[in-house]
Every structure is written in structure tokens, then in C-alpha cells.
Design goal:
Layout lengths: L4 H10 L5 E2 L3 H6 L7 E6 L5 E6 L4 E9 L2 E10 L4 H16 L4 H17 L3 H12 L5 H19 L9 H12 L3 H20 L25 H13 L3 H13 L3 H6 L5 E2 L4 E4 L10 E4 L2 H13 L19 H11 L2 E2 L23 E2 L5 H12 L4 H8 L4 H4 L7 H16 L1
Parallel strand pairs: 1-2
Antiparallel strand pairs: 2-3, 3-4, 4-5, 6-7, 7-8, 9-10
């Protein structure tokens, strides 16, 4: 703003003429407090430098100067925290800064506003709150619950306090690496959830890029476990021998329909037309978020008719609490797997509530099984494929919305196709 010494003289001449004094510590102590408001006493040697005295008897050093054609006033510091000599030297330094065109009050206010903006900037905690409020209600209850678990147990404890704008690729890579040390697959899922939320943050104008993109994922081997005919026979025999009939028949319906576990556990009688042999899964329970009409086999209908006869609940598989459905198949599943030969490292103990002796799991956390409940869905699909049904039919029965999801079963079509070409060759050879 001011480039030469003559400009400083002109600047000082532009300031209003005021009564001046020699600002010293001794002088400040003698100043009376005004009855209201404040009064400023200006120094006669250093233009614009003064002491402001309030009616509350507080005193502060100030500096008046011109910037952009208007007079500005900034507080240097409070007396006696600042001595008059220290305040005078600071005023001289500020005037030198003004001389080269700077506005110290604007700089001070800018830093304050910047600090406040930093404090108010959204963090990962804020991102989760909005993600939870606006995005998760659109997902299935099971998926939403899993997302919340990843946020609360993995993301927020590690990086929750970081501002969205400050989140870096290193922060995200570190999160993925820390979780991946013990749970590599879970680490991949966490990054997928975080990436989706950060994409939304870009849409909301909270940042311009996504630091969760391009993360080098941990290797995942797709698990395609299909039961053979002999294994299916052993499994159904084990299901028939399980004492917990509600859980056992829920598992059997999973095998007979290829449905997802959540769809079976939550199903109500009003979803079924047993006379027509149809199960209409409501959109609220399906992964594709729309009603899924599924024809039922005779075995599935026999199972449902049997349960319907003794049912007093709206749920096909009621839980122990009134008005609730069954939630946990783990105990029954482990016993069934043990009886069917799919479990290792177990102990055999008498059953709790039955005269029959049934295998009981000694330490479930240390057990290994070669079969997951979700493998029943894969098995159902494999039986359809090996029976010669097309991928579109398999996808329709499983409730797939994308063809590539069903394509994982394409190789299972080889056997019926091979049988078909063999028959064709035989007929042409005759």
C-alpha cells in the first residue's frame, strides 16, 4: 500500500488529529476509567499507537492505521500482560509491515476465520452421520447393519477424527493394512464401504477426490463349494436327526430353495401360497430390493405344510421370544455339519434338553468346517446347472439382477452339454 517514506508521512497526516501523550507504564497507571464505554490516549511520538481504557478499568494497547482508504484499528495486547515498551516495539514492527503494503488486522482475522473453518470442517464422524442418515436406509437391513458395524468398529476408531478434506491415500492405505493383518477379506469390505461414503462426500461438496480409490486389495479366492449327491444325502440325514426342529427345517428350506439365509429366517406365512406352490419374497427382504416370485418344489411344500399345521406364529420359523423370528442357526448348523462329516476338532457331549445323545460343540471359535450355510445356495445352483437348466433360469430362481452374478455357475453346464453332444454324435453315427 505504501512504498516510500514520504507515503508514511502522508499516511500519518491523514489520521485525525488527536490529543497526544507519552505512553509509558507510569502514565497508564494514572489514567482514569471513563464512566461508560472507553477512551483512547494516543502517543505523541509514534503515530497511531495508543492505550484504550474501558469503563471496566481494563487497558489495552492499540494501533490505528489506514488500509484501502479507510482507518483500521487493531489491538496489540492487554496491559499489564504487555508492557508499554513491548507494545511500542510491536507497533513499530506492524507499521513496517504496513509500509510494504500488508494489512495486519486482515491477516489476523483471516487466520482466525481459517482456524474456525478448520474446526467446523466435517470429519469422518460427520460423514458417517450423514451416510447413516441418508444412504443406509436405502440398503437392506442386513447390509446396513454390516456397514454400521464396519464404521463403528473399524473406521471411526482409527481415522474418525480426521477431517474429510485432509484424508489422504496414506490414511486409507494404513487403515486397510491395519485391518488386513488379521482379517484380510474384512479389510477389503471396509475399504469398499469407505469408498462409497467418500464418493457421496464428493457429491455433497466436501472434497474433490476419493482417496479410497485405487487401494491395492488383499487377494480373495472365490469359494465355490458344491455338495455332491452323497454329501447332500448325508446332510439331509443329519438335518432329520437334529433336535432343534425349527433351526433344522430352516436349514432344509435353504437347501431346497437356494434362498438367502435372511430371506428364510424372516419369512412369514402371508408370503406363501401353498395351494399354488409359490413363495413371493417381499422386496424388503431381498437383495435385489424387489419382490421375488419363486415356485416351490414338492419337498419344500411338504416341509411348509408340516410346519403350517403346528404353527401359531406369523413367522414360518418363530424364535423363542413372542412375536420374533429365529435369528441364529449357528449351534444347529455346527451339530448338523458334525453329524454329516463336515466338521473337525470337536467333542461329543450329551445334549442339554433331550434324552437323545447329540454332538455338542466344545469350542466353536476353534472349529473348522468345510461347509458354510451359504454353500447350500451354491449347491442348489449347481444342481440346476448340472441338470441342464440355462443360466437365465438359474439367475431367475436365485433372484439375481445381474447376469455376471450367475455366470460363476457357467462351467457346471459342461456336463449336460457334453451329454447332449454325445447323444447327437451317437445319432449321427447310426
Amino acid at each position: 500500500m505504501f512504498g516510500h517514506y514520504s507515503d508514511i508521512i502522508l499516511w500519518e497526516l491523514q489520521l485525525p488529529r488527536r490529543s497526544t501523550y507519552r505512553i509509558t507504564d507510569r502514565f497508564i497507571k494514572t489514567l482514569p476509567s471513563p464512566t461508560k464505554g472507553y477512551k483512547i490516549y494516543y502517543d505523541g511520538d509514534l503515530a497511531g499507537f495508543g492505550c484504550r481504557v474501558h469503563s471496566s478499568d481494563s487497558r489495552a494497547f492499540v494501533l490505528n492505521y489506514l488500509a484501502g482508504g479507510r482507518e483500521r484499528r487493531m489491538v496489540i495486547g492487554q496491559y499489564p500482560t504487555w508492557s508499554s515498551s513491548a507494545a511500542r516495539e510491536q507497533a513499530k514492527a506492524l507499521k513496517r509491515d504496513i509500509n510494504i503494503g500488508n494489512d495486519p488486522l486482515a491477516q489476523k482475522q483471516g487466520k482466525s476465520e481459517g482456524a474456525q473453518a478448520t474446526r467446523l470442517a466435517p470429519s469422518l464422524h460427520d460423514l458417517f452421520e450423514r451416510y447413516n442418515r441418508e444412504h443406509l436406509p436405502r440398503k437392506s437391513p442386513r447390509s446396513a447393519t454390516d456397514d454400521r458395524s464396519m464404521w463403528r468398529n473399524e473406521i471411526l476408531p482409527r481415522i474418525g477424527d480426521i477431517k474429510i478434506a485432509d484424508l489422504s491415500h496414506d490414511d486409507v492405505d494404513g487403515l486397510h493394512r491395519a485391518i488386513g493383518e488379521t482379517r484380510p477379506i474384512r479389510a477389503n469390505r471396509v475399504i469398499e464401504v469407505l469408498r462409497k461414503a467418500l464418493n457421496l462426500s464428493i457429491r455433497w461438496g466436501w472434497r474433490a477426490s476419493n482417496p479410497a480409490s485405487g487401494v491395492h486389495k488383499n487377494t480373495e479366492e472365490k469359494r465355490d463349494r458344491f455338495l455332491s449327491e452323497a454329501e447332500i444325502h448325508n446332510l439331509r440325514k443329519a438335518i432329520a436327526g437334529e433336535n432343534n426342529r425349527t433351526a433344522a427345517e430352516a436349514i432344509e428350506l435353504l437347501l431346497l430353495t437356494g434362498a438367502r439365509k435372511s430371506e428364510v429366517l424372516q419369512c412369514r406365512w402371508n408370503e406363501f401360497s401353498l395351494a399354488e406352490g409359490i413363495w413371493i419374497k417381499p422386496s424388503a427382504h431381498t437383495k435385489q430390493r424387489k419382490d421375488h416370485r419363486l415356485p416351490l418344489s414338492q419337498d419344500a411344500l411338504v416341509l411348509l405344510e408340516r410346519r403350517k399345521t403346528a404353527s401359531t406364529s406369523e413367522y414360518v420359523f418363530p424364535g423363542k421370544a413372542a412375536g420374533k423370528h429365529i435369528h441364529d442357526l449357528r449351534g444347529a448348523w455346527q451339530r448338523i455339519c458334525l453329524a454329516a462329516g463336515f466338521m473337525e476338532t470337536v467333542a461329543t457331549l450329551p445334549a442339554r434338553q433331550s434324552g437323545k445323545s447329540q454332538p455338542k460343540i466344545a469350542n466353536p471359535a476353534k472349529l473348522k468346517t468345510s461347509l458354510r450355510i451359504h454353500d447350500l445356495r451354491h449347491t442348489y445352483a449347481s444342481v440346476l446347472a448340472s441338470s441342464g437348466f440355462s443360466l437365465p433360469i438359474i439367475g431367475a430362481l436365485l433372484g439375481h439382477t445381474q447376469a455376471q452374478t450367475t455366470n460363476r455357475y457357467a462351467h457346471l453346464l459342461d456336463e449336460p452339454l457334453r451329454e447332449a453332444v454325445s447323444k447327437a454324435a451317437d445319432r449321427m453315427g447310426k
